[in-house]
Amino acid sequence: MDTEDYWGLIERSGMHATDLDTRATWLVNKLSGMSRADIVEFKLRHAEVKRAADTWPMWGAAYLICEGWCSEDAFWYFQSWLIGLDRETYERATADPDTLADASQIQRLTTDDADMEPPEWELLDYVADQAYERATGEEDGLNHILKARGVMLPVNPEPPEDGLDEGQAERARRLPRLMETFPPAETLPDALSMEDILDRHLAREGKTREEFFPHLPTDQEP
Questions:
Q1: Number of domains comprising the chain
Q2: Is residue 173 part of a domain?
Q3: Which domain covers residue 85, as residue numbers?
Q4: pLDDT truncated to tens, each residue of the chain (222 aa)?
Q5: Is there a domain that residue 203 lies in?
Q6: Residue 191 located in a structural domain
Q7: N or C terminus of the chain: which is more exposed, having fewer CB within 10 Å?
Q8: Are 128 and 143 contacting, i.e. CB atoms less than 8 angstroms apart?
């Protein structure tokens, strides 16, 4: 399986369904019917394609798009979500992340649509693992194959050190259109508080504060 085959499967999944869970299930079903070698190669091609988005400028773009809440995990799965948009959008964005301001899928994130999925696609990282286990019955078999080859794929963002200063001034210089589309909290007209930003983030994630902070003690009557 080469890069063209990889992108072909990604884009066919988007023709099959729009929601990410269904697309991931479709990919698992397709991959599990392929050879073991192809499943392994899909995993390797995914890591290879994803690496192009693992940069400080892209993290700056994700920071703005996610309204200032973009942890390592969030950025890691943002990269996979970006792959899921389509190849043209992805390749244009990896060359210049500010072009994401032109993408219709990004523009929809500016709406208050409660059904809008967050810009993350965690399941895409694991479709090859699930397909390999289904095809072979070997739990964690794909990882064993990769380790036997001496291949260690990253599981967190590892952008090059000579990247973007995360300061707002640098983001404004490199990402002017995204800054206009997703203005940082301190430049929003209504000066949203941190609680407002958190509530907007939770609404997008479909979570409550209790789910987001499961270990915080709740207020109790004395």
A1: 1
A2: yes
A3: 3-157+164-211
A4: 999 999 999 999 999 998 999 999 999 999 999 999 999 999 999 999 999 999 989 999 999 998 877 889 999 999 999 999 999 999 999 999 999 999 988 888 887 664 567 899 999 999 999 999 999 999 889 999 999 999 999 999 999 866 555 566 777 788 999 999 988 765 444 444 455 556 655 665 666 767 666 554 444 444
A5: yes
A6: yes
A7: C
A8: no
